[in-house]
Structure formats: structure tokens, C-alpha cells
Backbone:
């Protein structure tokens, strides 16, 4: 359904208007994704409602567009019209609006994972770049799911999706309920909680991957809450003298690599 758009005020592209402003106020159960790589990850999953692209990119995007539901409208506009709709220069020339999938319960999500599985459990991650990087690492190293504390930012925020190169749209995730005890939820499903900390009692290189491992990561600076650390197996990543911490997404990638290939 290729539809040419010449007027930035065309009501058919209303969901794409003023992207940055809507990033702040939300989209009532929808998400916005940008870029060809992200579109390729989302195509065929039944999540996308509409696509807005630079006219010059339509031919090159044809193989990806062919994987969309044929009823999904594809709006094509010149770069000036595209920029006027979005509110800034959208140099990637590709935007998609999609529906958020229903959020799963953490306990139900991890209970259905294979006998050998690794999950990420994140707490206090408020930086969208870090969250997107963690989702990308989780997908790259075969994690079964990402679990989020109530204080984590939104993985389906536009920037998180972009940094994750679409993994936020393909990786199963769930939030712990406000009354959940995350350690109890993990242990009940047979997952061993492994908390990352510079003061961890074990070195990562000495850690033998358990059959079901849950990697706990906290915000840079404050780290994980003490009540979670006290009830988990604590592990550190050895570093050069004078350094005691890593970017949280980097640390998560190192640990997931060890658990997958160590």
C-alpha cells in the first residue's frame, strides 16, 4: 500500500508528527522505530501499523517492505516533507509506528525457558543508550529474556530501540511486578542469581556457568540494591589497577559472553 504524501499536514501521517515532543509524552500503547536495520528486525512480526519513508529509499527497502502485512500502509514523501512531518532532519529516511505487545509477567516468561538458559535482570537502568546496548548484547549472546525492575526506563523508547538495533523488538522481556521479590521469582524458576559488582566475592573467570543463570545488573554508580546483593552470588570482572567499573552494557556483554562460551 504505497501512498505518496506531499503535504506534511496530511492527517494520514498524524502519528509521525512532532516525534521528539511525543517522545516526552508517550504514544498511547504505540512505539516509534527508525532506521533500516530496525525495520528489518521488526518486519514480519506483526507489530507495525504504518511506515513513513523517503521516496528515494522505497526501491532499496522493497525486500523488507515485502515482509510486512500487505495491509500496512507505506507512506512515501520527499526529504523536505518528511522532515516537516517529523520535526527534524530524519537522515535515516525510515520511520515505523507499531503497537506495543502485551507485557508478560516475569515469572511466567522465565518459567517457559529451556532447561539451560540465561536471562538478564536489570535494576535502575535509566539511560536509554545503556538499556538498548544491554538488549543488543542479550540478543547477540543468546539470552532467553530480559527482566526489568520497575525503575528501569522504557526499552521501546525510540532511542533504546535504535541502539539495540531492533533487539528491543525481538527479545522477550517483562517487568517485575511492584510486589515481586526478584530473587524469589528467579530461584523459583531454577535460576541462580549472579550479581555483578566490583566488590564481588568471585572472579568472573572462575565462574562455572550454571544451567540456569540470571545476570543481575544495576545502574552505573549506585549499582545493585543491597538487599539483592546479599541474596545473590556476587561476581566481579578483574580490571587494571586504578579502575573498578565498566559501562553497564559493556559489563553485561562480557558476562553474557562468558556464560555462553566460557
Residues:
Amino acid at each position: 500500500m504505497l501512498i505518496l504524501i506531499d503535504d506534511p499536514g496530511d492527517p494520514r501521517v498524524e502519528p509521525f508528527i512532532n516525534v521528539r515532543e511525543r517522545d516526552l509524552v508517550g504514544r498511547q500503547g504505540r512505539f516509534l522505530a527508525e532506521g533500516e536495520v530496525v525495520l528489518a528486525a521488526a518486519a514480519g512480526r506483526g507489530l507495525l501499523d504504518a511506515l513513513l519513508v523517503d521516496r528515494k529509499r522505497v526501491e532499496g527497502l522493497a525486500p523488507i517492505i515485502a515482509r510486512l502485512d500487505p495491509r500496512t500502509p507505506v507512506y512515501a514523501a520527499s526529504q523536505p516533507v518528511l522532515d516537516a512531518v517529523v520535526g527534524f532532519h530524519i537522515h535515516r529516511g525510515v520511520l515505523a509506528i507499531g503497537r506495543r505487545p502485551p507485557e508478560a509477567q516475569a515469572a511466567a516468561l522465565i518459567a517457559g525457558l529451556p532447561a539451560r538458559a540465561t536471562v538478564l535482570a536489570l535494576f535502575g537502568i535509566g539511560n536509554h543508550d545503556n538499556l538498548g546496548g544491554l538488549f543488543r548484547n542479550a540478543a547477540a549472546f543468546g539470552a532467553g529474556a530480559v527482566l526489568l525492575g520497575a525503575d528501569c526506563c522504557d526499552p521501546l523508547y525510540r532511542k533504546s530501540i535504535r541502539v539495540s538495533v531492533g533487539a528491543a523488538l525481538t527479545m522477550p522481556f517483562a517487568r517485575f511486578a511492584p510486589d515481586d521479590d526478584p530473587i524469589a521469582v528467579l530461584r523459583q524458576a531454577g535460576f541462580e542469581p549472579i550479581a555483578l559488582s566490583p566488590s564481588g566475592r568471585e572472579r568472573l573467570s572462575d565462574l562455572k556457568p550454571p544451567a540456569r543463570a540470571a545476570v543481575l545488573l544495576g545502574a552505573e554508580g549506585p549499582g545493585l540494591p543491597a538487599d539483592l546483593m546479599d541474596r545473590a552470588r556476587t561476581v566481579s570482572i578483574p580490571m587494571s589497577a586504578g579502575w573498578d567499573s565498566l559501562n553497564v552494557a559493556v559489563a553485561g556483554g562480557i558476562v553474557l559472553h562468558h556464560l555462553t562460551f566460557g
